Amino acid sequence: GRDPACLSTGRRPDGSTGPCYCDQACVRTLDCCHDYAETCPVVPCVVSQWSAWSGCAEPCKTTYRVRTRHIVQEPRNGAEACPALEERAGCVEYWTRQGMECKQSLIPALITTGGFGKARKKRAAADGKERAGYCVEFQLVAITPGCLHSHHSYTRWMRYLREGHTVCVECQHPALDSRSHHCSGDGTGSRKNQLLHWQAVGNPRCKGTWRRIRQLDICSCPSVHSFLFI
């Protein structure tokens, strides 16, 4: 509080003499009386525990959730200000408020290295289930640092993911759904430039976002930056 009427004359904490005050503002203006700290000890701010997280602000969108806390004790006598009373975190819900599943474009794509594609095609041909697939080109927007910490031999391909690069992801049997004729998470139905989510199989810390560029009905993925939908 600011109370200029609470005025005295005497020694200040820095050794100088003159007018000195006993209100909280003297801590900032450095004109407290010498005994201010003993007479008016600092009372720190105390806040409650965080509440539970709310649901997503909107379903079927990449949005945020909220948790809050309240002030139990206000700070006094020059104590530090209270910390933030609201915190937000990223959030995606895949179900509408009515319990309907959201559009497929919001489902994160699960990907692995294209090196497994040859083995898949051999198995499909042997089973007589080989179907024509397709490819989708994406531009990588964000990548978590966890992709760099992939030490197993089957996860080393994740180190070569780079923000801004264009990648080619193939949809083939058995990931190709026989009813929808799409792979889960391929971004079908997404808006132009919409951020879509992906996750690397084998390392849950390796994930990120990308934008769908186009679908290629005849696959011509390069050997580098080539992946598979799972």
TrEMBL record:
* Matches recorded under SUPFAM superfamilies: Somatomedin B domain, TSP-1 type 1 repeat
Q: Which UniProt keywords apply?
A: Disulfide bond, Glycoprotein, Signal
* Membrane-spanning segments: none
Q: What is this protein called?
A: SBSPO protein
Per the record's keyword annotation, is Disulfide bond included, yes or no? Answer: yes
- Disulfide bond: is it a keyword of this entry? yes
Q: Which domain of life is it from?
A: Eukaryota
Where does the SMB domain lie? Answer: 2-45
Q: Which residues form a coiled coil?
A: none
InterPro entries documented for this protein: SBSPO, SBSPON_C, Somatomedin_B-like_dom_sf, Somatomedin_B_dom, TSP1_rpt, TSP1_rpt_sf, TSP1_spondin_dom
